[in-house]
Amino acid sequence: MTIRREQKIFGNTTLVTEFELTDEELEQAFRERDHQYMLEDAERQLEEYLSDDADDDAYMRETYLATFDELTSPESKSYSLDYLVERFSDEQDCNVAENVVWQNVIRDALEDVKSRIVRDEEAI
After folding, report:
1. pLDDT number for residue 121
2. CB contact at 8 A, 64 and 110
3. Are residues 70 and 50 in contact, defined by beta-carbon separation less than 8 angstroms?
4. What is the model's pLDDT at position 124?
5. Which residue of 35, 91, 110, 113 is 20 to 30 Å from 24, comparing CA positions?
6. Residue 9 to residue 7: CA distance in whole angstroms
């Protein structure tokens, strides 16, 4: 695959750069983009699973020990999207609807997150 980039520099002058991706680079780019899409799916599915509760920080903290923002923010110790994607990939089954798999994964993962937070707090 050839990538072509055009950059405007100094008024009307355009710098054109072309480079060829190796099969390995193309595969890596595909895998990274696919993972980004899966993270977006995980966040959307988590928000749908939590429904109206995602916006209620007090309820979320009481029920799941973390807010929606904490569960979806990579900087948070409660970040869970990568974990959800991993679990979904492990559990995915062609004979089961994707939404059902997501709901089961999210339900189990939220329990795992609560357990991890409790363990971390007990260790302090």
Report:
1. 74
2. yes
3. no
4. 67
5. 91
6. 6
